[in-house]
Amino acid sequence: MSTIDVPNAQDLVEYRVDRILEEANTDTRIVVLARQDGVLDTFPIWVGAAEGHAIKLALDTMITPRPMSHDLIKSFAEHLDITIQRVIITDVKSSTYYATVHVANKGVERTIDARPSDAISLALRAPCPIYITRLPFFCARGTQGR
Amino acid sequence: MITQMHVKGLMFDPYNNAYIVVLRDEEHADMLPIWVGKPEAGAISMSLENVTPPRPMTHDFMKSLLDAYNAKVISVVITDLSEHTYFAKVHLMYEDSEYTVDARPSDAIALALRSNAPVFANSSVIAKQSSDELDQWLENLKPEDFGKLDS
What we know:
The complex is a heterodimer of chains A (146) and B (151). In chain A, 25% of the residues lie in helices and 40% in strands. With 146 residues, chain A is an alpha+beta fold. The model of chain A is unreliable at 142-146 (pLDDT under 50). Chain B has 151 residues and is of the alpha+beta class. Chain B has one domain: Bifunctional nuclease domain. Chain B is globular, with a radius of gyration of 15 Å. Chain A binds chain B through residues 1, 48, 50, 54, 65-70, 72-73, 75-77, 79-80, 82, 96, 98, 101, 103, 105, 108, 110, 112-115, 118, and chain B through 37-40, 42-43, 54-59, 61-62, 64-69, 71, 85, 87, 90, 92, 94, 99, 101-104, 107.
C-alpha cells in the first residue's frame, strides 16, 4: 500500500453532509458539505449519480431490502471488529478528489485510500466524523469548479 | 449442495433496463442469470476486463479494507432467490476464524473477482431459475453480445 500523508489534527475541519443536489441534464450529483462548528462554509463535491444515490440513502436513513455496497463494507467492519474512526477529504488535483478512511482494530490503525463518495457514504453509515484538511487546495477551490 | 460457477459475461437487458450477469457451471450444464443495476454491472465489468481505474472504486476500497487486516475472501455463495431478489454470502477468513456475511450477489461477485475467490451457487437457486424462454435466449447469444458496457 502506498504511503498516505496523514494531516495533523489542527489542519482538520469537521464537516457534515448538508444536502445532495441534482445537476440538471447530467449524470452527476453535488454533495454539499457544511462546516460543523457553526462557521458558515460549504464545500461541494461532484459525484456520479450512483455514488450520490448511495449517499442519499444513508442521509435519509433509508432501509433497503438488501444491503447496499457500503452497508456490506460496514458489515465487514462489524464482523471483523474494525472501527471506522473518521474520514478525511485530503486533496483535490485536476478535478479528482482524494479521501482517506481511518480504521482501527485492536489498536492497529490503518489508513485506506478512497474516493470521497465512498468515504462519505461509509461515514454516514458508520457513523463517524467527516473532516476536510485545511491545506492550500482550500484557498484555490474557488476557482476549482469541479 | 453447491456448484462452482464462473462469470461468463454481462449483458444488457433492454426490457428491464438492467444488466444480467451470466454465471455458468464448469460442465456448461447449468446457467444462472442474475439481474443487477448499472453501477453494480460496472463494478463487475471492470474486473472482468481487468480495467484499473485511476481511483479505487467501491469494491476496490472494500478489498483494501479487508487487505489492511489480512482478511481473505475464501468464497462467495449465491444462496437464495425469492421474488427476483438474490441472496449471497461472503465467506471470510480472518485470524483463523471464518466469518459469513450477508450480501447482494452483485457485491459478492464484484468482490470475488477482485479477490480471485470462487463463486458458488446453491443447487436450489439453479433449480428455481427455470425459464425455458430465457434459457433459449441465452443459448442463442453470440460471444459478441457479452461484455459491452458502453452506455
